[in-house]
Amino acid sequence: MTYQSIRAEISPANVGILTLDRPDTLNALTSQMLDELRDAVMRMPGEGARALLLTGEGRGFSSGADLAGSGGLPDDVGLALEQHFNPLIEAIIAAPVPVVAAVNGPAAGAGCSLALTADIVVAGRSAYFLQAFVNIGLVPDAGATWLLPRLAGRARAIEMMMLGERIPAEKAADWGMISRVVDDEFLAEEAILLATSLARGPTKALGLIRGLARNAEQLSLTDALAAERVAQREAGRTEDFRAAVFAFLQKRQPRFEGR
Fold this sequence. Notes:
9 strands; 6-stranded mixed beta sheet; 45% helix; alpha/beta
């Protein structure tokens, strides 16, 4: 499918690469871009993508919502969330395959939320994360108030959201917001290696891990144990599990097929 504001392709290694492609605006998010991303996130796993990689073209990951192109001040700022932002965040969270984000330059506003929705976030050393909403009299959105306390803890999340200050990549890693930081020139290589490694893994098990980890903080220990029981039954019925057991008995590395 041809998109206007993103690029979407599936690599030979079965990685669905999604690139925000409005570099002249630092990949500011429009309703069209959000809808195209959601379509690609929902479509690509069914077309063979066993992992998704999200990144931005040019000097930044995303500067957040496109205020310059919004056509004036709407009466209901939240309507765009309901119609475009929130469905995308829900689609990424519900994806049946792991998601990697490669953050180059700024990830601001809703662009920050978009990046942090990924399972593994790798950032270039010059990257930074910014919740700028308070600077224009708005509240964080696109899942920020749900994501940040879980990733960085309540105190740091409140500080980030209320002060509206940049969080450099190194600090974001120290806070537990992201997985790793690499030199800018190695960002693309590191991200594709991570996504490729995940795409070669047991896809169904990885999808189940996503769900267990997402829900764990909202469950009691008893309920979490029960959820693991259900997920393990499902994982134990996959072809990948059976193949891996045979490979272990034969003292060789398994080859997962994602089934």
